[in-house]
Amino acid sequence: MINPAELLSSIGVLDEPNHKRRFKSILFLGPPGSGKGVQGDVLKSIPGFYRFSSGEVFRRLDVTSKLGRVFLEYSTRGELVPDELVIQLWLANIYAHSVLGDFKPARDLLVLDGLPRTVVQAQMLEPYLDVHKIIHLECRDLEALVERLRHRALKEGRPDDTDEKVIRNRFTVYQNETQSVLAFYAPEKIASLDCLGTPVQVAAQVLTALVPATKSRG
């Protein structure tokens, strides 16, 4: 059994300085295939938003490295990676982006796609995030999302979306773990939107829901 702390220490991630500033943030929550990435890309194109996709970071990991093999082992089974690994890798990456200057915490609203996935992760992120709004992309048609993921697998060559058993297990994991994250946050911060509209229709709903958050940032 892999010990997350030992693995992180062995690759130097735990040596990264902790970032003590609380980032002004917007969270995207929703089941696999709900369009979090698409809507995150829409916001990324607008000045004042900085999108950070944990899924993209994990998929860019070198699968021949020690850490990469661990993430691949979990993702190919449709299981969640241990919380400590996820948060520490996120901290190392977001700190690096702020040092490089492409993420400017004093100016930008941080858009998180894929975090937090569990209540434990939400608790671990509390010292780092000042959450202004949660965009909850919900869907009552599971089969429509399964079809979306199949299409995405063919188009993008993503191994985590090619096996239907893995796809359905990811939905089960979402229902058991991530859905409960919504209860962690104040109801007035949550905007639940139907994800099955066209990308433009969903984007219009997202932007409308975010107007108060952007006003607070000037």
Reconstruct the topology from this structure.
Elements: H1 4-10, E1 23-29, H2 36-44, E2 49-53, H3 54-59, H4 66-75, H5 83-100, E3 109-113, H6 119-125, E4 129-138, H7 142-156, H8 164-176, E5 190-194, H9 199-215
Parallel strand pairs: 1-3, 1-4, 2-3, 4-5
Helix pairs in contact: 1-5, 2-9, 5-6, 7-8
Explain this structure:
This protein is of the alpha/beta class. It has one domain: P-loop containing nucleotide triphosphate hydrolases (Rossmann fold). Helices cover 47% and strands 15% of the residues. The protein has a five-stranded parallel β-sheet. Helix 1 packs parallel to helix 5 and helix 7 crosses helix 8. About 4% of the residues have low confidence.
Descriptors:
218 residues, alpha/beta, Rossmann fold, five-stranded parallel β-sheet, 9 helices, 5 strands
In short:
This protein is an alpha/beta fold and 218 residues long.
Could you give the distance between the termini?
A: 48 Å
Helix content bin: 40-55%
Main sheet, how many strands, which sense, barrel?
5 strands, parallel
The helix count comes to 9
For the record, the CATH architecture stands as 3-Layer(aba) Sandwich
Query: What is the CATH H-level superfamily?
Result: P-loop containing nucleotide triphosphate hydrolases
* Total domain count: 1
